[in-house]
């Protein structure tokens, strides 16, 4: 089954068919995963014995990309090369990978992280195509040598990011066309809003009476969240960028946050890299967390709140999210990524666009017409820098249509 392709995805498919190496810059939630999947399907149609490598910055994103691939691509060998759990074949040794690829017939799709990419190079396998998701991570000095080597050994090589890192020195940067490909394709956020691919973010700066300081952080944040979630509109499915792990744990254990949310019909989920994933207080594996998130997100009657520190920021699809609450300041790139979690078009609206029942850009008739971004600001000015950062990002990316780039100097 070929995925439904939006205009920018069709253009990507045309260009990737013309170029063996290409850097794509597209706003978060522009559908880069579907671009990868559609191109991989074409690769497998042209060569049923292809070996494909998909690289992501985090294990959780590897697992999500793998799940997305399986919706469209069957009859292939799926391998995960990282330290996380998976229901598929998992290999962590490069010699085992070399042996597997040599002795296993048919096509192979290998999902790996930038941390483990060097092992694929060490295995010296033949690679038909490599896709770098969130390719700005690839310029990190810890990973760049492996990325450069895989780029050389891959017959086709495609890099994708919403927030590129360009170098103005001899240090690695996404503007190294020899490694990442030339910037042949880019998309502007306002165009994606008008064609129904993403939604415009709508900021809401909530002024909180009283001050917030380190001594009362967890208690103060508990009351702020309750007030924002229970009294604001469009808050049925909420993603919260928590201040830090310590405050998050104190909120969950030392305040009435969980029973208060549960009594108002909300499921409460949280995930941190240190402690793992939880659903309503029960610890679950990451794959179950993703499945639960997807299931609850697709249910229009379900209400939930998801806490994280940074693990759900980059590339992770958080289906159905209506709003994002910023409880801490982030850098420009992470702010863009966080906003991207709540500006996905609702599944209901997407289906109506496919059938012609909803015209892209007819926001008054959208079930979900915007993504809500909430920033609490206290009397002692805590939160004011976050509000300014968010509003600056919205203006630059979603109004003016610029993309966010870091410059390595």
Q: How would you characterize the overall build of this protein?
A:
The protein has 409 residues and is an alpha/beta fold. It folds into 2 domains: 7-187, Rossmann fold (3-Layer(aba) Sandwich); 194-402, P-loop containing nucleotide triphosphate hydrolases (Rossmann fold, 3-Layer(aba) Sandwich). It has 15 helices and 18 strands. The protein has helices at 7-18, 32-46, 59-72, 94-103, 117-123, 141-153, 177-180, 189-194, 217-231, 245-254, 257-263, 286-298, 332-340, 347-355, 384-399; strands spanning 21-25, 51-56, 77-81, 89-90, 108-113, 127-132, 154-161, 165-167, 183-186, 200-208, 237-241, 266-272, 276-279, 282-284, 303-308, 323-326, 370-378, 406-408. It has an 8-stranded parallel sheet, sandwiched between helices. It has an 8-stranded mixed sheet with strand order 10-17-16-11-15-12-13-14, with helices on both faces. A hairpin with a 3-residue loop joins strand 12 and strand 13 (276-279). Helix 9 (217-231) packs across helix 10 (245-254). The longest helix has 16 residues, at 384-399. It is globular, with a radius of gyration of 21 Å. The model has no long low-confidence stretch (mean pLDDT 92).
